[in-house]
Amino acid sequence: MFRQYRALTLATLLVFLMAAVFGCTTGEKEAGQGTVKEKFNGEIIGIEPGAGIMKATEKAIKEYSLDYTLKDSSSAAMVAALKSAIESKKWIVVTGWTPHWMFARWDLKYLEDPKGVYGGEEHIATIARKGLQKDAPAAYQMLDAFYWQPSDMEAVMLDINVNKMDPDEAAQKWIRENEDKVKKWIPEGVPKGNLKKIKLGYVEWDSEIASTHVVKHVLMKLGYDVELKAVDAGVMWTGIGAGHFDAIVAAWLPHTHGDYYKQVKDKVDNLGPNLEGAKIGLVVPDYVTINSIEDLNK
């Protein structure tokens, strides 16, 4: 009887030990232990399909032979996923760009891109339709003079996304607080808009929402009736090339929108950079322990 009891006890103990070992292993896996791919759930969280950064990421997946799925979403959904992951200390990799307010809010880093798929430093340019200079000279000169710093753009983005201001309210606030900069954009001795309509196209990146709304309110100061139209990148470039938009201040060059620009460059006026020092790439929270796109394969 005692021997039977002893054997049963040992068997029961063995079962508990095995459960503890395998249970621990499962728990560790759920907590993010395992391969780099498993920690990222095999996903790269993207934005709107057709965006230049999405095309670059599709190329990066091929160039680096990544066994990852690029998930379409939106700029807002990407940031929401990033916020949720950071709050839970989970690993996440997203398509990111600067200037962007998320870099001011969280500790983030770009993964190194040794193959140069995402290109180097970029600028954001102002593009106008042919004929705008003649049709609306004050607007054309203002757009040509428009230039600001990444910190300026980030201030507007923070008010919109963190302080929950309406984009128009945030743009007007920045203009009030930066009158000296804005004065440099306003032409002198040129006939004002006289309520002539100006149509601006833009992509719904937080950065372009900020810049386009600021330009809108400066043009309104010049007497123009300004209409904004949010579209995807392809439609924005087709629209400016066909003259459906008077201008865009959201042209990421030479890489992100380079293919689009090549298709319309002979049909538009490139007024040059309105912001320099822009960048795109794959972004992770700073606590993620890899540093290169190549490490995603580990």
UniProtKB/TrEMBL annotation:
**Signal peptide limits:** 1-23
Q: Where is the ABC-type glycine betaine transport system substrate-binding domain?
A: 35-177, 196-298
Keywords on record: Cell membrane, Membrane, Signal, Transport
Q: Which GO terms describe its molecular function?
A: amine transmembrane transporter activity; carnitine transmembrane transporter activity
Q: Where in the cell is it found?
A: Cell membrane
Gene3D superfamilies, per this entry? Dipeptide-binding Protein, Domain 3 (3.10.105.10), Glycine betaine-binding periplasmic protein, domain 2 (3.40.190.100)
- Entry superkingdom: Bacteria
Cell membrane: is it a keyword of this entry? Answer: yes
**A GO term (biological process) for this protein?**
glycine betaine transport
Gene Ontology cellular component? ATP-binding cassette (ABC) transporter complex
Q: What Pfam families would the database entry show?
A: OpuAC
Query: Does the keyword Metal-binding feature in the UniProt annotation?
Result: no
Q: What name has this protein been given in UniProt?
A: ABC-type glycine betaine transport, periplasmic subunit
Q: What organism is this sequence from? A: Desulfofundulus kuznetsovii (strain DSM 6115 / VKM B-1805 / 17)
